[in-house]
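Lecture notes, part 5. Sequence design as translation. It can be helpful to think of inverse folding as translation between two languages: the language of shapes and the language of residues. The source text, in structure tokens, appears below.
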């Protein structure tokens, strides 16, 4: 961190103006290299027992975090979206491309993803992608999806199911629109350059 760094004060020690301006004032938001690992300093080592309300900045992830008495919660990020690679279910990537990223604000996770099929990709069943973090047991998630199947455009939904997001397509065959999960033939047989895209917000 900038300034004098860290110092452990002892009872009866007299603080100089310089120490107040560096050790105390500059540590009102403490800066750490990472939460764990080899970066210096490491928050878990310096603050093994944090107090409720402590605020830290993590350089490795460019995140500002506050301790809520039980866990560190991200309250801001200068890094913006973070890319990640999900595990696929009901489809095979083959030589297709994945573009997935998420952003965390407090206990809210914003997620976006796109799977563009290549010549060796396939859709075989209900399509889902694993989430980048664990959804809250008390929370829920709902989003929208845009599906290109056999070169035709369809609208759909993205729903949380366990630790994954399941993609569905709107079925307008009845009096009211319903939701069908994707499959090898729903809404059509997927071909090269078709895609499955979605955006989703959920509590984490």
């Amino acid at each position: 961190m900038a300034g004098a760094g860290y110092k452990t004060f002892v009872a009866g020690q007299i603080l100089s103006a310089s120490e107040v301006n560096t050790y105390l004032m500059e540590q009102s938001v403490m800066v750490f290299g990472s939460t764990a690992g080899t970066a210096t300093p490491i928050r878990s080592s310096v603050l093994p027992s944090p107090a409720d309300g402590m605020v830290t900045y993590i350089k490795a992830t460019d995140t500002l975090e506050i301790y809520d008495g039980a866990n560190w919660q991200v309250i801001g990020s200068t890094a913006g979206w973070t890319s990640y690679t999900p595990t696929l279910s009901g489809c095979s990537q083959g030589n297709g491309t994945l573009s997935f990223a998420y952003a965390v604000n407090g206990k809210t996770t914003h997620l976006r993803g796109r799977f563009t099929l290549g010549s060796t990709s396939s859709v075989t069943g209900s399509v889902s992608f694993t989430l980048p973090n664990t959804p809250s047991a008390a929370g829920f998630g709902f989003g929208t999806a845009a599906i290109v199947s056999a070169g035709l455009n369809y609208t759909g939904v993205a729903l949380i199911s366990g630790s994954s997001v399941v993609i569905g397509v709107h079925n307008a065959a009845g009096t009211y629109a319903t939701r069908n999960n994707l499959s090898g033939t729903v809404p059509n047989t997927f071909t090269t350059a078709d895609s499955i895209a979605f955006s989703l917000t959920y509590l984490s």
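The translated text above is only one of many valid answers, since several sequences can fold into similar shapes. The CA atoms of residues 141 and 160 lie 5 Å apart.
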